[in-house]
Amino acid sequence: MSDMMALQFEIERFYAVEANLLDERKFEEWLDMLADDVRYRVPIAQNVAFTDLSSEYLEDDLAMHWIDEGKETITHRIKQIRTGVHWAEEPLSRTAHLVTNVLLEDNASHGDDEIRVKSHILSYRQRLADQEDLIVGRRHDSLRRTEAGWLIADRTIYINQTVYLGSSFSHFI
């Protein structure tokens, strides 16, 4: 197996483990997959003309995002969920995360300390009797190699909705 194929397999397995941790509600273990300086964001999409696709997502640092968090904020969200009195996550949502079309940047190599990865996601959430959310989109990640394994150093999730139709962003996508 070539080094590139081995790296591809390693990253796809990393994403499978991540999805399973989220779906099994092992949020503290998932948190360990994030670098201390992680930036985790979901920019807002807007409808634009074909000739203006570069401005489809509001991405600059001053723009509004659905989510724009670091590890500290994510840690607080997890602690709040664990209190059992989190109105949007009590009872906890049932989720299914699918990650596909995983592409490593063209010049990625097995010895790199940080690599960029693109993927597509489908995040399904169901809670209470009749609340269902479905999020489809693309992810652009920077993964950092450490002695403990890969960590998510930066994640931008481009969802395919200009208006979020779900009840809340209280679950992790």
From TrEMBL:
GO biological process: 3-phenylpropionate catabolic process
Record-linked InterPro entries: NTF2-like_dom_sf, Rng_hydr_dOase-bsu
Keywords: Oxidoreductase
One Gene Ontology term of the molecular function aspect: oxidoreductase activity
Family: Belongs to the bacterial ring-hydroxylating dioxygenase beta subunit family.
PANTHER family in the record: 3-PHENYLPROPIONATE_CINNAMIC ACID DIOXYGENASE SUBUNIT BETA, BLR3401 PROTEIN
Name recorded for this polypeptide: 3-phenylpropionate dioxygenase
Organism: Rhodococcus rhodochrous KG-21
